[in-house]
């Protein structure tokens, strides 16, 4: 295994060019060329869309590493073929349904989702020949509905009501699957139930966690990320705790409006959900089955204000050339705060869940920032990125 250490000149946003040292231990089936590009030496190709899921790079965040004296690393989940961390869970819940015998060739997958899980499922279902039915709150943008339909899903926008209400989009999805299963048991239909189906968490125990451990060569002191379903945080935490005998510290990063931070801080008191956040796809009003077992394993939690997350969206663009969605930016803020806690010399890893492409019309719009009361969160030197009226 060759340990490649190189020095290269890079330009970060408006800053002057500076030296960045790349340390990357290339596995046997990989060579790293003079520009730091990993050239695979392995033979073969992947079998369809699903074979391209996972094995995402771990990226050093230089400015934050320098600021904290720690090595701050982001797992580039936006490089999954469907564009987000949710491709992993989508594949696992579909495979779980196949293995349980509920889903047969030509069958139907039904899910309640407003975002990346739907997109991941749409790709996976299309590539495997399943029908996909999506229920989502009717508050979601037309753009999301159009994209899901483009990817072949049947989409039902339904009134946005609380999880406890039987008309909530998740319960409607469940009933739809049960109906189809009765009508056509030969092909089968399944409600993949991303929140409480632990096949989601298993995706991260079996793929994301081991990848992080191997990519850091076991030199990792802490991990932090936010939760939607909790699959990523719980799965990676489970794996890292087991493989390191509990040495890797794991922290929840929580947005405003989520109940989990106060749940952890209070030692298990579940408050009513109130308020919200600009960070789509994360924040939770309950402890899901995916998260349940790992909550007690966590070493703490951080509450990250929207002002910090939006500033980090702009900073990552300017300082690292990374075009990230707000949940990734929240994770990066949390990683910085954890790095400050752990101290110089430590290694902290987080998740870069998806890119900014799906949110650009909001994140870089003057009017949207004003509406959300976040215009002043953008420092003067980053205002040039507010390119939309
Ligand atoms: C953009 C984004 N970030 C983070 C998450 C959270 O991931 P998980 O559901 O594994 O907790 C999601 C989930 O949908 C998401 O869409």
From TrEMBL:
Pathway: Amino-acid biosynthesis; L-cysteine biosynthesis; L-cysteine from L-serine: step 2/2. It catalyses: O-succinyl-L-serine + hydrogen sulfide = L-cysteine + succinate; O-acetyl-L-serine + hydrogen sulfide = L-cysteine + acetate. One of its GO terms (cellular component) is mitochondrion. Its cofactor is pyridoxal 5'-phosphate. CDD domains: CBS_like (cd01561). One of its GO terms (molecular function) is cysteine synthase activity. It is an enzyme of class 2 (transferase). Its EC number is 2.5.1.47. It holds the Pfam family PALP. One of its GO terms (biological process) is cysteine biosynthetic process from serine. Its main location: mitochondrion. It comes from the Eukaryota. Belongs to the cysteine synthase/cystathionine beta-synthase family. Catalyzes the conversion of O-succinyl-L-serine into cysteine, the last step in the cysteine biosynthesis pathway. Can also use O-acetyl-L-serine. This is Cysteine synthase 1. It comes from Lithohypha guttulata. The lineage of its organism: Eukaryota, Fungi, Dikarya, Ascomycota, Pezizomycotina.
């Amino acid at each position: 295994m060759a340990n490649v250490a190189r020095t290269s000149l890079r330009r970060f946003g408006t800053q002057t060019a500076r030296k960045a040292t790349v340390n990357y231990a290339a596995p046997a089936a990989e060579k790293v060329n003079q520009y730091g590009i990993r050239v695979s030496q392995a033979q073969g190709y992947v079998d369809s869309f699903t074979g391209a899921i996972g094995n995402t790079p771990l990226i050093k965040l230089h400015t934050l590493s320098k600021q904290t004296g720690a090595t701050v690393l982001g797992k580039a989940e936006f490089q999954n073929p469907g564009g987000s961390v949710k491709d992993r869970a989508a594949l696992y819940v579909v495979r779980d349904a196949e293995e349980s015998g509920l889903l047969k060739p030509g069958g139907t997958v039904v899910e309640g989702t407003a975002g990346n899980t739907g997109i991941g499922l749409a790709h996976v279902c299309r590539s495997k020949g399943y029908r996909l039915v999506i229920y989502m709150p009717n508050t979601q943008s037309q753009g999301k509905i159009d994209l899901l339909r483009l990817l072949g899903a049947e989409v039902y926008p339904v009134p946005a009501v609380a999880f406890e209400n039987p008309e909530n989009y998740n319960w409607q999805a469940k009933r739809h699957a049960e109906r189809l299963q009765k009508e056509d048991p030969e092909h089968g239909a399944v409600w993949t139930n991303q929140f409480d189906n632990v096949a989601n968490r298993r995706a991260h125990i079996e793929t994301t966690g081991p990848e992080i451990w191997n990519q850091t060569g076991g030199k990792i002191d802490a991990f932090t990320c936010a939760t939607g379903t909790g699959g990523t945080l719980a799965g990676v935490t489970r794996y890292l705790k087991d493989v390191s005998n509990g040495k890797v510290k794991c922290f929840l990063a929580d947005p405003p409006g989520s109940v989990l931070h106060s749940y952890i801080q209070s030692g298990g008191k579940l408050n009513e959900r109130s308020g919200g956040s600009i960070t789509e796809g994360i924040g939770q009003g309950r402890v899901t089955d995916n998260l349940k077992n790992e909550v007690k394993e966590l070493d703490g939690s951080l509450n990250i204000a929207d002002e910090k997350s939006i500033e980090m969206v702009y900073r990552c663009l300017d300082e690292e050339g990374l075009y990230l969605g707000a949940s990734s930016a929240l994770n990066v803020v949390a990683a910085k705060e954890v790095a400050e806690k752990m101290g110089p010399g430590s290694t902290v890893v987080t998740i870069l869940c998806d890119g900014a492409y799906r949110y650009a019309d909001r994140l870089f719009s003057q009017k949207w920032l004003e509406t959300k009361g976040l215009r002043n969160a953008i420092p003067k030197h980053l205002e040039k990125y507010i390119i939309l009226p």
